[in-house]
Amino acid sequence: MRIQRVPSKWAKTEVILLNRSLTPYIPDTRKYDPAALSEMLGLYETVYIKPDRGTYGCGVMRAERRSLHLTPSGTEQSGNNEEKGAHSSILYILRYGTKAQAYRSIEELHQAIAERTQGRFYLIQKGISLLCYKKHPFDLRVLVQKSPEGRWETTGLLGRVAAPQKIVTNYHNGGRVLSVEALLGEHMKHNERLAMITHLKNLGADTGRQLETAFPGMKEIGLDVAMDDHHDLWILEVNTLPSLVVFKMFEDKSIYRKIRRYAAAYGRAGFGSPGISSRRKPIARSH
Predict the structure, then answer these.
(1) Which domain of life is it from (predicted)?
(2) Which of 34, 110, 119, 213 has an alpha carbon 20 to 30 Å from 198's alpha carbon atom?
């Protein structure tokens, strides 16, 4: 049976939100339009605008609302030390790649975004303040696969640390891949880390089971999970064609061997068949 892929982020989000136990893990996510941009930047200081279909963080933008306190001379001033005659002003920052541009109105901001989206279907999502590793934000990739027995199982966990001044953590955008244990080591004690890893594994399997209710041919998913300053988890998006080879870089080679075995069992291209060696078989000769 062919493995089902679902490129639409919105379609997957809608299915996950049908499960009340998973709803708390989904940040406020909506279809992008000017009204959604205005309302969400009124609610949150930071939002992400991302293409409904896309990989590797391509096309992702971040919009920020800044409150400035200006003196009569036009210089910015701290709100804790206001000078007589000072007034507040709102500034909007749009970031993409390593670039940043400032706008004085929500209309100007939307126009700049529209020039980049070119009428394509985009989503807008509440920005999560990511936990940092050595002052660089990171998120987590949770790999979930169907076992040969047909159960959803989390088979791989890794962390992705954003490159300097980048707004996404993806490896293809310069991010670094590190173990989850190393990343959480700065923020949690040993027992807390073990409990969090169990939580991540359960969240991955629960998400796989929920998505399967709408997409029965799905066999593997990769969750992009954010962890905030309170150590709460947020599912940013789900990839139905996750990278498997990235798990080869870890010292524990048994992790990748298991990932390969599961992938072969459900027929992912390039991973052979279960129980069959990847080495070329000798050609049979007639006698």
Answers:
(1) Bacteria
(2) 213
pTM: 0.85
Cα separation, 63 vs 124, in Å, equals 10
What is the total residue count of the chain? 287
Token digits for 183?
């990343």
CATH topology of domain 9-26+128-265: D-amino Acid Aminotransferase; Chain A, domain 1 (3.30.470)
Q: Which amino acid is at 229?
A: D
**Alpha carbon distance 284, 286 (integer Å):** 7
The pLDDT tens digits of the residues spanning 198-243 come to 999 999 999 999 999 999 999 999 999 999 999 999 999 999 999 9
Q: Could you tell me the CA-to-CA distances from 68 to 19, 47, 89, 93, 286 in Å, in that order?
A: 41, 19, 5, 12, 83
Q: How far is CA 183 from CA 12, 170, 177, 212, in A?
A: 28, 16, 10, 31
Nearest to 106 by CA among 32, 31, 35: 35
The residue extents of the domains of the chain are 9-26+128-265, 34-126
